[in-house]
C-alpha cells in the first residue's frame, strides 16, 4: 500500500510498495509550479535517498500542472538543478492529457538530466519502465 510521506504546496510525496517515489498533484485545478515547490521536491528526494541509501526511481504525475513559473524554469537550466543526477535511477513523467503531455515534452527537451527520463500516458507502463531500469 502506498504511503504518503510529505506534502508542500500543490504536491504530495508518496512511496509505493515497490519503493518508487511518486510526486502527485494535490489540487484538482491546473496550476503553475513555483520555484519553492521545485526546491522542496529536490529536498524530499534528497532526504528519501539519504534515509534509504539507494538511488531513486521517481514517478511524477503532471496531470494538474499547467506550467512552471519563470523562476522555476530559470532554476531548471542552472547547475544547481543537476543536484539529483547522482542519486537518480530514472524518472517517469505521467502525462495523461494533452496539456500535461505538452508540459512533459517541454521538461524533457529543455531540462535534460544525466539519468533516464521518459514521458508516459499510462501509469502501469511508467512503473514497469522504472522497475526495469538498472541501478
Could you describe the 3D structure shown?
The chain is of the alpha/beta class. Helices cover 36% and strands 30% of the residues. It is built from four helices and eight strands. The protein has helices at residues 35-52, 70-76, 98-110, 123-132; strands at 3-8, 11-15, 21-25, 31-33, 56-61, 65-68, 88-94, 117-120. It has a six-stranded mixed β-sheet, with helices on both faces. A two-stranded parallel sheet has the order 4-6. Strand 7 (88-94), helix 3 (98-110) and strand 8 form a beta-alpha-beta unit. The longest helix has 18 residues, at 35-52. The protein starts with a strand and ends with a helix. The model has no long low-confidence stretch (mean pLDDT 89).
- Biggest beta sheet summary: 6 strands, mixed
| Radius of gyration based on Cα positions | 14 Å
Percentage of β-strand residues: 25-35%
Helix content: 25-40%
The total count of strands amounts to 8
* Order of strands across the main sheet: 1-2-3-5-7-8
Summing up helix and strand content along with how strands pair, one would put the structural category as alpha/beta
In the predicted model, the low-confidence regions spanning at least 5 consecutive residues are none
Alpha-carbon distance between the two ends: 23 Å
Order of helices and strands: EEEEHEEHEHEH
The averaged pLDDT comes out at: 89
Q: What sort of overall outline do the alpha carbons produce when their principal axes are compared?
A: globular
